[in-house]
Amino acid sequence: MKPNSTEANPTIFAYIGTQTEGKSEGIYVYRMNPATGDLEYSSTTTAGINPTYLAIDPTQQYLYAANTIEGEGLISSFAINPHTGQLTYLNQQPSGGSKPVHLIVDHTGKFVLTGNFGDGSVCVLPIQEDGRLGEMTDFIQHVGSSIHPTRQQGPRVHSITLDPASRFAVAAEYGADQLRVYRLDAINGKLVSGIVPSVPIEAGSGPRHFAFHPNERWGYVINELSNTLISYDYDSAEGILKLKETCSTLPDDFTGRSNCADVHVNAAGSFVYGSNRGHNSIVIYAVHPDTGEIQLVGHEPTQGKAPRSFVIDPTGGYLYVAHQDTDNIVAFAIDRQTGLLHPTGHSIEVPMPVCIKMISLP
């Protein structure tokens, strides 16, 4: 039987968003070898200036990218070729704010939610039947600031994340040290403030990315400035987050400068991973299956500088780290029992990679 020829052996594609100030040409597409974890080049798509964050719809037919062009935020849509993984440009819509750095598609495939870092706002864009984006159905401007003299002078939305049921969205308000909670009105494409609309975080933390546990009982935010991971109990019926615990992402003996970036929970819900830029590592926590409490497992050097983004592949067997400053993506095998990462020896060169997403196509 030839690899990737049946549903039992699907083709796994990696999509890599980049900053295009240097040698990058846009979004890079690679095919994964599930036996080795190696990534083999497939194609490149010119995707406007700085396609720095990507999201894929639940049908895996369309990809959406956040662009910043001369300060203006734009969201681009692309069709995914189911055989080659290649992208075809469809259209583009304004994000309503400046410097969109994060976006997500709801589980129905009807809406794209976007967080604008430049001015601290969120917006909702409807997805039409052909995958193109319509004009925005909602826009919310945040207010507030915090104590960092240059990074928190005003609102800065660094991510917006939907819970597994797409009922509630959590916006990481980096500039004001808060999590903003919204209920998604999936009929009208509106964001409605939750019962507890904001969750304060210790001043100077800089909440960046949020991840829900697959059981919908817990959630985790990684804080860029304080280098911490905060875990929460989550009431999925009401969209309420309750503080559980705060843990450092760095070793106790580390004295250098570092800033957190990305956070993910594996599909089994047994481990949480976060990236440290400066210490240049992935921090690994084990999740208690009953209480959701996390325990430090260790740190794995990422073999590059500024691990801004990483992804766990659809099989759950590999983790790929994208290094913004060393133009490389490094593959690690995941020990499913311990959560530990082991270098596979495989890496690829990609100019200024800042986001990586993966899908499995039959």
Automatic annotation (TrEMBL):
SUPFAM superfamilies the record matches: C-terminal (heme d1) domain of cytochrome cd1-nitrite reductase
Listed InterPro entries: Cycloisomerase_2 (IPR050282), Haem_d1_sf (IPR011048), Lactonase_7-beta_prop (IPR019405), WD40/YVTN_repeat-like_dom_sf (IPR015943)
Domain of life: Bacteria
Pfam families in alphabetical order: Lactonase
Family: Belongs to the cycloisomerase 2 family.
Protein name: Lactonase family protein
